[in-house]
Write a structure and sequence with these properties.
- Helix content is 42%, strand content 16%.
- By secondary structure, it is an alpha/beta fold.
- The protein has two domains: 154 residues, Rossmann fold (3-Layer(aba) Sandwich), CATH 3.40.50.620; 61 residues.
- The radius of gyration is 20 Å and the shape is elongated.
């Protein structure tokens, strides 16, 4: 089951500890995320490991914007729905390095000191950007220097999932929700995927959009980007001319 109520630490290999982990905003989760997570769960299971799924909210410490509209609770429920039967631990991301290291220490405390620890970051290779989090490996190794356990860290890239011939993205889901809000489309095509959580996914996206002007919503639908405010643009222009 996803998001474990009781973690079966005994599942981990007592000698060779492998820490699989995934980091993503998932705003909202979509088939691409699911494909990567299911493959990670299968890989982890084959090495007697329970993968850690760190779900974040973006750069502004949980502030909900059109790029980051969903609450952690809704994202977790969607993942539990889609990953039902898969063994993984879903947690809210705070500081990724610390979160991963604490998970490793938690397992060691409950399973015993292993002969080695291998960290495996699983990343979706959407637009060829699976390497964007590679900086994490150096940081993990630095944090683990204080232990006497041999460690190493690497990335496993998994190809992006396509939908209707196009690589799936959370931006696309958000845009479709806004089209439905303006009466220019329907969000019903996602009902089969999000199931009972469809109203929450749609509702939290349009809730954030409700404070925006119609022209800003249209701009987002057309570009997938938030419209920059004039005040910010003027401020940047002054700094450039200073």
């Amino acid at each position: 089951m996803a998001a474990l109520e009781s973690i079966p630490y005994s599942f981990f290999d007592p000698t060779r500890l492998v820490i699989y982990f995934f980091i993503g905003r998932m705003n909202p989760p979509h088939p691409g995320h699911e494909a990567v997570l299911k493959q990670m769960i299968a890989l982890a299971s084959s090495e007697r490991s329970i993968p850690l799924v760190l779900v974040g909210s973006g750069p502004n410490r949980g502030e909900r914007t059109l790029n980051d509209p969903l609450t952690f609770t809704t994202k977790r429920r969607v993942l539990q729905h889609r990953l039902s039967g898969g063994l993984c631990e879903i947690r809210e991301k705070t500081e990724p390095i610390r979160d991963v290291i604490e998970w490793a220490h938690e397992v060691v405390r409950n399973r015993g000191i292993p002969e080695s620890i291998e960290f495996k970051l699983v990343a979706g290779d959407k637009d060829g950007n699976a390497t964007k989090l590679d900086w994490i490996h150096k940081s993990i190794m630095k944090q683990m220097e204080s232990t006497s356990i041999p460690c190493r860290s690497s990335t496993i890239a998994i190809p992006a999932q396509k939908m209707e011939g196009v690589e799936m993205s959370a931006t696309r889901v958000r845009q479709d929700a806004l089209k439905a809000l303006l009466g220019d489309g329907s969000f019903d095509k996602y009902t089969g995927y999000y199931g009972p959580h469809t109203p929450n996914v749609y509702g939290e996206i349009v809730e954030v959009a409700s404070i925006l002007a119609k022209e800003d919503i249209i701009h987002y639908i057309e570009t997938g980007d938030l419209k920059k405010s004039k005040s910010k643009s003027k401020s940047k222009s002054k700094k450039k001319n200073a």
